[in-house]
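Ticket #4471: structure output looks truncated?

Reporter: J.K.
Steps to reproduce: submitted the chain below (460 residues) through the standard prediction queue, then opened the result file.
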Amino acid sequence: MKNYSKTKIIATIGPSSWDAPILKEMYSAGMDIARINASFADFAELERVSNTIRQTSPRIGIMLDTQGHKIRVTGLDHEIMVEGEISIPNTFNITYADLDKDVSVGTRILLDDGNIQLIVKAVQNTEVVCTVTQSGILKPNKTVNIPDVNFNFPAITEKDKADILFAVEHKFDFISLSFVRNREDILAVRELIENSGIKLIAKIENVQGVENFDEILSVTDAIMVARGDLGVEIPFEKVPILQKQFIYKCRQAGKPVIVATQMLESMKDAIQPTRAEISDVANAVMDGADALMLSAETSTGKNPVVAVATMQKISKEAESVLQQSPIYGHTSAPEEVDELCRNLCDISESIKLKGIVVISNTGQTVLSLSRHRPNAPIWEISNSLERIRQDSLLNGVTGFFLKDLPQDRDECTQRAVEVVYAQGELDLNDKIAIISGSSIRHNHTDAILEIVQVKNVLSR
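Returned output as attached by the reporter:
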């Protein structure tokens, strides 16, 4: 297997990348998860693209990104210059019909990701009159952000509900939920998807999401720091600090965290990133992110394969100077498993383990182990392709599929090591750690840790 970075790469799929040959090249370059943005895709396109991804490799995780409560400019058939005071005849509509009921004099309204800025001057019946504090050219369908208003949106829009049910039916691996405001937004989706097994990712990109981060983290499976809208909704200088704080909290909870938006933005057109983008990617790796996401760079950009390869190259270089960093706080795993995983990081360094083999039943041990960022790679052995795809989001984890996990523990560990050895990851003299479930009947919470030499396992 190729020596990819421990930090995982999510690539957004679009017109530049949805053909099979390009997808295959992106996967070879280091793409772990493919993101499909439901904002720009109908069901026919979602099905066609997801089928192509599955045919490229059954190991690639598929993520559906919901549209969420996104407000946009509507009714414009050409661009207009927004300046001075917005009133008749210089008017436009937005996709939120009750704006006049929710804003008041002095409310800020940001258009096109904040490039155009307005202040409400008056509310006259259903018309909102604004003064332009930052002028600019407004094109059709651009975004509208109103940071100071808590809109009375339902937990799930009708479009999102239909898209989520599509993802359930077609066995997607992840659903990333846009503009999550509180724990109720997550719980409403959990009720909708029932026991489908899809992992939910809460996108933090508005003021309410920041304020309610801890309660959101407690009920979601993963977090995405969606810096695009987040940098419009809150003062942009606060975003780097929040990014670091959110990553640390996610690692404490043992839940994966993604850093997203504008990471290699210039590569939409250029063959190389800017020096600032290189530093941004490297710093996200050093902050401890599980995964980094490419958006327009791979969906509509000119160089999708090069963008993935570039992010892979930067991530590996940043990882080369990182030290393992055990972290405190308990995950969903039993407390003794968390403690075992934390101590194993020290053991792996002191006796220079080649890697850690985890025979996975529930996935809890892998979650707990990954958050400590051991220098040794984590090899997860599972009889579930779904588990392997979902755990491809975890930092440092590589999944290996073993269709039949033997009930006998010795036979199971031998088969697991054989699978890793067959991929060229091990030499016979290497020392490895093996974590497996307890051999005590009906004991599903404890784990056994064994330090062994590869040749001794294979000769059992």
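Triage note (M.O.): checked the attachment and the full token line is present. The longest strand covers residues 116-124.
Status: closed, working as intended.
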